[in-house]
Amino acid sequence: xxxxxxxxxxxxxxxxxxxxxxxxxxxxxxxLQKLQEISPTFGEVKPLALRIDKAIAERFPELDRKVxxxxxxxxxxxTRYLKAVEKATARFDLxxxxxxxxxxxxxxxxxxxxxxxxxxxxxxxxLAADAERERQxxxxxxxxxxxxxxxxxxxxxxx
Length: 159
Hints:
The protein has 2 domains: 24-102, Fertility Inhibition Protein O, Chain: A, Domain 1; 120-159. It has helices at 7-12, 28-38, 40-43, 52-59, 65-76, 79-87, 104-156; strands spanning 90-92, 98-101. With 159 residues, the protein is mainly alpha-helical. Helices cover 65% and strands 4% of the residues. Strands 1-2 form a two-stranded antiparallel ribbon. The termini are far apart.
């Protein structure tokens, strides 16, 4: 019996199905879109009930838990969500019903995160504005230099 593996034998063997590597279903963005459609809590961007990921997993058993966790991180990191947490006192479940409270510590954390985020955005804008001013200064300097050279050539070039 020949146990050698030839290139032809490898081609003829069926490949392992790709679906086994990743369960069929939505990706994180698709899940968020679906949740925004079916849940007033997500649609209106209200603070989420603690452990809402378990309720989502029950409602969508075909989803990989990593997809749910990624979607929750994406959603809770948005500025709109952080602003909602900063101002809210209650948390909400998938059906839009109150389910717990937002603590003062959680509100302060959201406020601090927003403050840091806005400071970073302002810093980037300032750096961009400074770079633009420097670019304009360099262009103006170059324009003046070119103009001065043209004047000198005009004055001394004809003699």
